[in-house]
Specification:
The chain is mainly α and 507 residues long. Helices cover 86% and strands 0% of the residues. The chain has one domain (2-502).
């Protein structure tokens, strides 16, 4: 019964992650459409560039936020509340001091970088919102520790509820401030929203850990060493990951202009939100695997295999439909057929699909603490992004920059899942699940036909009605192998089992 209840908790966390992504995606859809009309695509590009650049200072957090999930889960499994409290307090105090210092010291450097990549006529506006972005980032960093603590307690559904409320609240603030104050209004909205989320997150984590003091004041040197040792590798992952977005956007600004940055931001956000439907639900396995590492490590390989097959089964039709839907999304979201957005959306969808396949091995490594290949994969992607970004950007302007990032992302992700199979002696053939091969062939044919029509007759795709027909027909064709797939039956079986557990628990 205990195992079934734990499965049910993982299931609830995963379902709430999906709900959170769907609702937040809906909020972002209306928010970005509103911002396009209110402040314009170039100012949206400035806002995106400022946030991406300031996020680089997260390189100084030593991976402590990521460490919190693993070590809170570890000590919760051992029923050691005092150590759980020590992990959270030590991480909060350390990050508050370190990130605060780095933000202050890095302010002049960030201004200098803006001078290199932001057009002169937009530089003053970018610098005016910089202090707000830095303070907002500091709040978000500390809040991340509290939310990682909730993840460690396997109460991810609470974090998801908080993110839903936060996104709605932020959108409402933008609707109020953006028309009156313009770009600076977005900064006001983010500061207010992050402050509220900061307070609520602290209240929630204290609810599950009553021994936690109202104000963190206990810094434990032994715990700090423990979480920093894990966090160093995690931080390399974080650093290389966080540099990807600002580097790509900086190169886009240089080789393509701020409009391209704005459309890239929208295309990337679109794909990321769809991707999060799968990845955020999958992320609940990190604390679960950390728990298995303490209690039943031999089950981890089985969990991985099932998880990878499920990822492939869900990701393949999802990303196929994203590509087919980009013209319609452009018409509805932007208001017209925007070729830059559609090309970027298609390229990024391919890259993030290949990245999604690495999710199972990536999170398994996080849960067990074996981060070596995660680190190597991220470093590979970061180096390729810089080298290829400059080269292809010079040769093919902004389109080359995005192609470079897609190549870097795909190869870096491949390093992670191929290495996991070699390390754990899992045949590479299992990377292409036998049960999904028919669906793969069908999706490939659909995409080739669609891309051929789009490249040769893109004027015909500017009709919303025609786009809807194409999407509907493609969905019907894909649905047949999707429905007949053995994984669907397994999903239904899991759902019935979890409902049965719920009834038994209530009785």
């Amino acid at each position: 019964m205990k195992v079934s209840i734990e499965r049910r908790r993982v299931f609830i966390n995963a379902i709430m992650s999906l709900v959170q992504i769907v609702l937040v995606s809906g909020v972002l859809f209306f928010l970005y459409r509103f911002l396009l009309k209110t402040i314009g695509v170039e100012k949206l590009g400035i806002w995106s560039l400022v946030l991406a650049t300031t996020s680089v200072t997260q390189a100084a957090n030593f991976g402590l936020s990521g460490s919190v999930v693993k070590f809170v889960a570890k000590y919760v499994a051992r029923n050691e509340d005092k150590n759980v409290s020590g992990v959270i307090q030590t991480a909060v105090i350390s990050l508050g001091v370190i990130i605060g210092t780095v933000l202050l010291a890095g302010y002049p450097l960030i201004k200098w970088v803006f001078g290199l990549v932001v057009p002169v006529n937009s530089l003053g506006l970018a610098l005016s919102i910089l202090p707000f972005a830095l303070f907002s980032l500091w709040l978000a960093t500390i809040t991340g520790v509290f939310q990682s603590g909730l993840d460690g307690f396997q109460r991810i559904y609470m974090r998801n509820l908080l993110m839903i409320v936060g996104s709605i609240f932020y959108a409402l603030l933008c609707f109020i401030f953006a028309p009156k104050y313009g770009l600076i209004g977005l900064a006001y909205a983010q500061i207010i929203n992050n402050t509220v989320i900061f307070i609520v997150s602290w209240v929630l984590i204290k609810r599950f850990l009553p021994v936690l003091p109202v104000f963190p004041y206990q810094w434990n040197n032994d715990i700090f060493k423990e979480i920093i040792n894990y966090g160093v590798n995690f931080q390399i992952i974080t650093i290389t990951g966080m540099f990807a977005d600002p580097i790509t956007k900086a190169l886009l600004s240089k080789f393509g202009g701020l409009s391209m940055v704005g459309y890239y931001e929208m295309a990337n956000r679109m794909v990321q939100q769809f991707r999060a439907l799968i990845v955020s639900a999958n992320q609940v396995l990190v604390p679960a695997i950390a728990d298995l590492q303490e209690k039943n490590p031999e089950r981890i390989r089985s969990v991985y295999s099932t998880n990878y097959n499920l990822l492939f089964y869900l990701a393949l039709p999802l990303y196929t439909l994203i590509i087919i839907s980009t013209p319609l999304i452009s018409e509805i979201w932007i208001g017209h057929y925007e070729r830059i957005f559609i090309v970027f959306g298609t390229l990024l969808t391919i890259g993030w699909f290949l990245n999604t396949l690495s999710t199972a091995s990536y999170f398994a490594n996080l849960g067990t603490g074996n981060l070596r290949w995660n680190v190597i994969g991220h470093i590979t992607a970061a180096i390729l992004n810089v080298i290829l970004g400059f080269t292809l950007g010079f040769l093919f302007n902004g389109y080359g920059v995005v192609i470079a990032w897609v190549i870097a992302l795909s190869l870096g992700s491949a390093v992670i899942y191929v290495a996991y199979h070699f390390t754990n002696r899992i045949p590479l053939s299992e990377l292409f699940p036998k049960d999904s091969r028919a669906m793969f062939v069908l999706c490939t044919i659909i995409l080739l036909v669609f891309l051929l029509i789009q490249s040769g007759f893109n004027h015909t795709l500017r009709s919303i009605a025609l786009n809807i027909i194409i999407i509907s027909l493609s969905s019907l064709v894909i649905f047949i192998p999707f429905y007949l797939h053995p994984m669907r039956k397994r999903l239904m079986g899991w759902a019935r089992e979890l409902v049965k557990v719920k009834v038994e628990v209530e009785e």
